[in-house]
Amino acid sequence: MMPFYPVAKITDINPGERKIVTIKTIEIGLFNVEGKFYAIHNYCPHMGAPICSGFINRTVNSNSPGNYIYGEKLVIRCPWHRWEFDLESGECLIDTYKRIKTFELSIQDEWIYCKL
Ligand code: FES
C-alpha cells in the first residue's frame, strides 16, 4: 500500500494559488482551484516541461467569432507548446494517449496529504 505524505497546510495554498512540493525525487504541483485541491506531476508528457507553471482555465468552445462558451473541465496549459490537460484526470485534450500523472489527496486536520 502506497503511503500518504503530508505536503502542506490548507492555509499554505490560498484559492487560485499553487505550490510545488517534492516527495522523494518527484516534483508535484498542488493547486487550489474553485474550492478543490488537485495534485499533478510537474512534468509534461510531451517534452518534459515544468507544466505546473502553466495557465489554468476551463475548456473554451466557440460557435462564432467573439462568442466564447466555457466548458466543464478545468485544464492546465503547458507553458512550452500549449497542450492542454484535464487537471482532474491528467488526460491530454488533443492526444488521449498522453496524460499527466495525477495524485490522490486526503485532507485531515488542516493538512493536505498526497499519496504516491
Ligand atoms: S512540453 Fe508540454 S506541450 Fe510540449
Q: Distance N terminus to C terminus?
A: 10 Å
Query: With helices defined by DSSP (H or I, 4 residues minimum), what is the helix count?
Result: 0
Structural class: mainly beta
Poorly predicted sequence stretches spanning 5 or more consecutive residues = none
The first-level CATH class name: Mainly Beta
Helicity level: under 10%
Which band does the percent of strand residues land in?
A: over 45%
Number of domains: 1
CATH superfamily: Rieske [2Fe-2S] iron-sulphur domain
Indicate the CATH topology: Rieske Iron-sulfur Protein
Mean of pLDDT: 95
Q: Can you tell me the overall shape?
A: globular
Main beta-sheet strand count, sense and barrel state: 3 strands, antiparallel
Bound molecules: FE2/S2 (inorganic) cluster
Describe this structure in words.
The structure is a single chain. This protein is an all-beta fold and 116 residues long. It has a single domain, classed as Rieske Iron-sulfur Protein (3-layer Sandwich). Helices cover 0% and strands 51% of the residues. The protein contains no helices and 9 strands. It has strands at 4-9, 18-23, 26-33, 36-41, 55-64, 67-77, 84-86, 105-108, 111-115. The chain has a 3-stranded antiparallel beta sheet with strand order 1-9-8, with no helix packed on it. The chain has a 3-stranded antiparallel beta sheet with strand order 2-3-4, with no helix packed on it. Strands 5-6-7 form a 3-stranded antiparallel beta sheet, with no helix packed on it. The radius of gyration is 15 Å and the shape is globular. It starts with a strand and ends with a strand. The mean pLDDT is 95. The structure holds FE2/S2 (inorganic) cluster. The site of FE2/S2 (inorganic) cluster has 9 residues, from loops. FE2/S2 (inorganic) cluster binds at residues 44, 46-47, 49, 51, 78, 80-81, 83.
